[in-house]
Amino acid sequence: MSSIREEYDLPERTPVPVRHWALMLLVPALALVLWLVLPSSPVFVAVLVLVVLASVFAGVRGVLGSRALHQPPRRNPVTPPSARG
User: Fold this and answer.
1) Which of 1, 7, 43, 76 is most buried (most C-beta within 10 Å)?
2) Smallest Cα–Cα separation from 16: which of 56, 71, 80?
3) Highest-confidence range of 3-7, 54-58, 69-73, by mean pLDDT?
4) Which DSSP helix (H) or strand (E) runs through 40?
């Protein structure tokens, strides 16, 4: 018995929109956690800013550097199993 991914020819990697949403949810959550954990002295606020900027740039680079954005879509349509004879 084949898996659903093989049957419908689904991608093996996480789709780009899911990565975008994860980035948009995780970076503010990280900033909030760091803000609550670290005291509000000027040194720790500067560290917080650097950590948030580094995570944003690393996340955007990871999302925009994915293969899904650089490869054209395949042109071989897959017939669903219910339509097969």
Assistant:
1) 7
2) 71
3) 54-58
4) none
Which 8-state DSSP code applies to residue 85? -
| Chain centre to alpha carbon of residue 36 | 25
Residue 5: name the closest of 17, 15, 19, 20 by CA: 15
Global confidence as pTM: 0.46
In the Cβ-directed half-sphere of 67, how many Cα atoms lie within 13 Å?
5
Span 65-79, pLDDT tens digits: 777 667 776 676 777
Centroid of chain to Cα 67: 13
What's the start-to-end Cα distance of the chain, in Å? 17
Cα 19–Cα 50–Cα 69 angle in degrees, nearest 5: 25
